[in-house]
Design brief:
4 helices, 5 strands, alpha+beta, globular
Length: 116
């Protein structure tokens, strides 16, 4: 890993009777031990109403877990424990953008918002 790249994983939703959907992304920087977590803002048409409330709180829960565990342990935890409704994609490398990583994550998620 270089100082000019970040790790990127997709949070994939595998809901019953629904196509595989990108629900969020995590950008992480192993050198600076930081992670940016960004989830979709809306779940209508993606999840059943009873699941929408749970999914809307997911980002907060992931941020809290990342803060508690630290970035490296958090990423390891995701890979080892998320495999059912929400799973983690393989890691990709992306060039570090200039500017704010939160804004980059939001733009990336909006650009990549698609169903597989």
């Amino acid at each position: 890993m270089t100082a000019t790249s970040l790790g990127l994983v997709f949070l994939e939703l595998r809901l019953p009777n629904r196509p595989l959907t990108i629900g969020g992304i995590i950008l992480h920087d192993a050198l600076n031990q930081s992670a940016v977590i960004k989830m979709r803002n809306h779940w209508e048409g993606i999840a059943e109403p009873e699941d929408q409330e749970v999914l809307s709180e997911y980002e907060h829960g992931l941020r809290q877990l990342a803060s508690e565990l630290g970035t490296a342990a958090f990423m390891e935890h995701l890979g080892a424990n998320f495999a059912n409704t929400v799973s983690v994609s393989p890691e990709y490398r992306v060039n570090r953008p200039r500017g704010d990583l939160e804004q980059f994550a939001a733009l990336l998620l909006e650009t990549l918002r698609f169903d597989l």
